[in-house]
Structure formats: C-alpha cells, structure tokens
Input
Amino acid sequence: MENFVFHNPTKIIFGRNTEEKVGEETARFSRKILFHYGQGSIKRIGLYDRVVESLKKAGVEFIELGGVQPNPRLKLVEKGIEICRKEKIDFILAVGGGSAIDSAKAIAVGVPYEGHVWDFFERRAQPEKALPVGVVLTIPAAGSESSASAVITNEAGPYKRGIYSLLIRPKFAIMNPEVTFSLSPYQTACGIADMMAHVMERYFTPTKNVELTDRLCEATLKTIINNAPVVIKEPDNYDARAEIMWASTIAHNDLLSTGRIGDWATHAIEHELSALYDIPHGAGLAILFPYWMLYVYKKDVERFAQFASRVWNVEVNFRDLESTVLEGIERLKSFFKSIGLPTTLKEANIPDDRLEEMAEKATWAGPIGNFVKLEKEDVLRIYQMARG
Amino acid sequence: MENFVFHNPTKIIFGRNTEEKVGEETARFSRKILFHYGQGSIKRIGLYDRVVESLKKAGVEFIELGGVQPNPRLKLVEKGIEICRKEKIDFILAVGGGSAIDSAKAIAVGVPYEGHVWDFFERRAQPEKALPVGVVLTIPAAGSESSASAVITNEAGPYKRGIYSLLIRPKFAIMNPEVTFSLSPYQTACGIADMMAHVMERYFTPTKNVELTDRLCEATLKTIINNAPVVIKEPDNYDARAEIMWASTIAHNDLLSTGRIGDWATHAIEHELSALYDIPHGAGLAILFPYWMLYVYKKDVERFAQFASRVWNVEVNFRDLESTVLEGIERLKSFFKSIGLPTTLKEANIPDDRLEEMAEKATWAGPIGNFVKLEKEDVLRIYQMARG
Output
C-alpha cells in the first residue's frame, strides 16, 4: 500500500425531495450566486422551479447562466467568469450532470485568477484559490459532485483537458434519485459506463497489497452491474436508481484509490474521441476499455483473473488463467452491449482516418497510464483494435 | 434505501512516517494545545518523542495530560476541561487509541459548555460547540479517529454512555501502521473484534434495498478476516497492518451506514460488561455478537444467509437456509476463538451473578436495537446464553 492523504469534505444530501434543501445549504455560503445549468432539461422535469423556489425562500439572489453542453466548452466558462467578476458573485451552484459541474468548477478557479483559466488545463499554473461550488446532481455518471477534477473542451483545438485540485471539491451535493427517472436509457447507460470506468481506472494498479480497496472496487462494480439492467428497463425504479446514483459518487470520490496508484490511460485515450466527435464520454469509454484490457492484461494476469472471477463470476481455469481473463473481458464487453452501448468505433459511426492524430494528442504530455505506460504507438494500436 | 446525509471531513494522513506531519497539521488550528494520551505506551515505542519534536518544530506549545485508561473515565475528562479553561487552550491532540480519542472528544464538548459534561451522556443536553480535535492513532479498533461518537465511563455508577455529534469528528487523523507493530496479539485481536462489530452493527439492518452498502460491508469484513491471522502471527507485517488499520476507519466513518438503519443493540449490551468488569470492549463484543445473532436471526433469515455465504464462504443449503445461517454464526465464533478471544463470559472470568442488573442498565432508556427491538428480558436471555 502507498502512503496517502484522503480528505473529502463534500456534504452529501441524498434521497427523496432533497432538492428542497438547496436554498438552506447555499445560504450558508452566500446570498448572491451564479446558477449554472445545462440545456433546459431541468426545466422540463420541474427541477428548475423547485430549486428557484428554495433559493428564494432562503433569500439567495441568483444570476442564471444556462446552456452548458455535454463536453463543456471553454467559451461558456469564460462567460461565467466574466459574469461572476462583474456581479461580484462568490458562489456557484451547478444544477445538472458532470458537464454543468465541471463548467462550474472551471469558473470557480477562473474568477480569482489573474491569468487565463486555460493555463490550469495546460499545466502552466496551479489553482491557488477557488470560489465554493454547490451541486444539485441530475445525472449519475461523472462523479464530479464530490470529485476534485474537472474536464473542459477548448474549441480551438479541439482540446479536451482536465485539472485536479482539492480546491474544487463541491461543498455540498444534493442527490435525489427521482430526478434521474427521466434520463433516457442511452444517457443512463453512458453514465453507467462512465462510473464503471472510474472504478476500473483505479482497480488496474501497479500497487501491490491493496486488498481492502480491491474489494471495495469489486463491491461497487457488482452493484452497478446488477442494477444497470433494472434502471434501463424500469426507469422509475427508485431503489435501483438510488444504488446507481450513490455508486457513481463512491466510484469517484477518491476513497477507492486510497493507497494505490490508478491507471487513467483509457480516460486520456477517450478524451480525444469525444473532443473530436462529440460522443458521450461514457460511450467512448465503453468502446475503449475492453481493448485497453486486451492490450495490457499480460502485465498482470493474476489481477485480471481476479477481476474476471470476483466481478464477473467467471469460473477460474487454474491451468489457463489467460482464458479466465479473456472471458472476463468478454463479459464486460457483452455487458456494455446489453445496455445499448457501442463496443466499436464503427458502431458509434466514428471513421478511422484520424486515429494517428488522436494518438498524437492523447500523448501530448508524454506516455500515459500507470498500470502500463503507453506511448503514441500503443495508443494508436488500441484505437485500431477498437475500429471494429 | 433511506434518505441520508453523509459528511465526513476528517483528513486522513496515512502511511509510513506520517506522525512527522502532526506539528504542521496542528498548527493550522492552534499554537497552544492539550496533548492528551494514555498510559505511556507511546513513550515506550518512541512515538511521544517524534510527536513532541514535530510540535516544537511547528511552534506549537502544548500542555500534557496523560493517563487515559481503557474505558476512559469521566474524572480525567473533568480534569482536562479544567486545564483547557485555565490555560485558554483551543485544540486537543489525542495520541493513542479509541480511549484517548474519546476522552479528548468529551473534553472538547465540555470546555465551551456551562453545565456539566455528563449532561450530554445522559441526554439532558446536546453539544452546540466543541473545540477541534486532532488524532495520531496507535490502535486500530474503535474507529474514533473519524467517527462522530465518544464513549465515557462514569465511575459513580459505573455507567458507560456514549454521545453522537458531528461536532466531534476529528479534524485530522494521522495513521502510521508501523506504530501498531508493538500491539500485543490480544490487543490486536480485541481491535479486530471491535471493528468487525462496527460493520456488523450496520450490516444487520431492517432497511431493504441496500445492495451497495451491503457489499461495501462484506468487502470490509472479508479484508479484516483475511488479514487478522497475519497480523497476529507476524506483528510487523506492514501490508497486513495497513489493511487492518484502514479497515478500522472505514468500518466506523459512517460510509457503511449511508441509507440504512444500524442495529447497535450488541454495543449497548457490551457496554454494561466492560463498565462492570473493565474488560476490553472488543473482547466483550466477541463474546456477545454470536449470541445476539442466535437470538435474532429468525427475523431475517435471508440476510443472515447472505452474511454466511458472502462473508464466510458457507455453501448455501437452499432447502434449509437456517443451517447455512447457523454455520455462518459458528464460523464467526470460531474465528474469534482462533485469534485468541473469549467466546463465553466464563472464558473471560465474568461471573453470572449480576446479569439481571446489567440487563436492566442496558435498557435504561427503553428497548435497544433496530434490527430487532430488545427489552430487558431479551437482553438477559442473551447474557444467559453467553454464560458458557
């Protein structure tokens, strides 16, 4: 086990009707806020009205900035920073999924910074201050509601880049599973792939002797796998939606990486896909993760056999562990397929004429991944395997 | 799943040599502190010197109050409160196990309170303020390093009573597994029973549809069970000590009870044992938990069968689930025996002439337990079953 610091002070407020608490929770921090959201789905499901009512009741003034797109854009972040500075706003409330939250986090570090916010994403500077952020979560997927990371797309490249800073962990996250009833099966499935990827990035580690976190990862994955078909088939099943929603937070609140080094190559490889073709991050991860596994499993066959056995209930073939590994990877792929996700680039209508460019960009800062270090050529090979 | 709020802001600093950070972490809060510890074991293992050096380096002045006993006493808490008030101290550093930490927490709520601190333990008042507490942990057991609870023994009864308040979660907990190498096999085993009990109190719930937390509980228990014989046999095995130490915190930081109601009857039943006979809390729990299980399992045979199957690898007898349940309980008991713990009152040299008095005291505030409500007669029956 590696030495670690674990500090996650996000206050989670979970369950039915919890959005009614947003005014009270926000008022602890500020009386004048930026209310940041996406493309209007919160209005269709009535959440917008309930949030506004709660804010007004608590005497919290707000300025609205909607319009966050999936794969949130730098342009809107710049606009948010401008509004906050002009209006002397000192708190940002994100109501939405990972995109709205990540956009809010980027605004939060941008406001008190004298340079351009993109500096942080290009690693030219580290955030030293941030406005506090609060969250009402609508999509269980990114785990951004209690994570220390944010990913933004700069239209100029396009470049999709992330930052990690403890300063941007939200102060509170309000999570009502009922709010997720209206997610389409495809949105739901993309979220499921995203949260599973967060666990798997942590699971495939070069660190030895990490039994507790291995088992916590397996527990989280099994819960997601068991509840996924239920939420796809019965979108308003509260209990299954609740399991999935809480699992999405646990998957990415850093508990599962305590004492171990994560891999994170597949995230970097996927970011190039969604930057260029604007597909959902979860769909890209569903395509790529099994091929990443096929490319790297020989590095630690025992760990992959454990994954197959404990997560996918594959009967272990002790005379041929690799067959156990391959069956585990196959079950992961079949699972993604069964919940309606693409498993090749072709199925997602992604052409194969820019694979080299993507491989180049994915490794812009050097080799990626910690389980196995991948150079540009390795990444290209994985894209090629995923062509279909 | 029940609605819940989960908020655990304790900063965990885990790994080799982390005690060197105590000065720096403490200085964020205060320059004049109470340095609270037990009966000198921290001096024998050199930890005292390393803590003092770090505090001095960070410019933190301290007043010492040692002498905390296992089952920490109200008398010393009163003394600590007096010192803090007189010396205008605004931070308490506990270096030790659950007893030192609980004693520190009681002092922390007592200092700013005008009445007597025991009011909180008698439920005559709720803490509204508390001094911040920091921890250097030496015994993985009680989980007090990031919990919101504290248990104190009032010699006058003797009464052993607990409080729960979010105000007393420590600000930071420094956890170096090397510090636990010097624990005796018996101390180690008592700690193991204590942390397992924390998980089991949460596991046996009346709440339905709690798959994620069920599985996280099982993951934690399996890790403890697998590493227990290793730390008993090889006290300086870093990796196994680290698993046990991190598991003890996870067992009691409230993550495992998110969305579910815990039972907690066995804790109340045990407190009377250790109040009267001053045995380690963990030893008392090891004796009582299997008998509590035998007394209540019919309330939810499926849950107990799941426990037997998933935690103890009992092969399920689908035509006779009760036999599966009983085998699971038997394996728990054998496990406690195998690590050197008593499994009956007789083995712990506890006479059976005051069982009625203990049953009376355990139910002083009404029936106990949420999985099954236990009246005085039920508690008495459990004590009688445990006689041996």
Notes: Residues 305 and 325 of chain A are 5 Å apart (CA to CA). The mean pLDDT of chain A is 97.
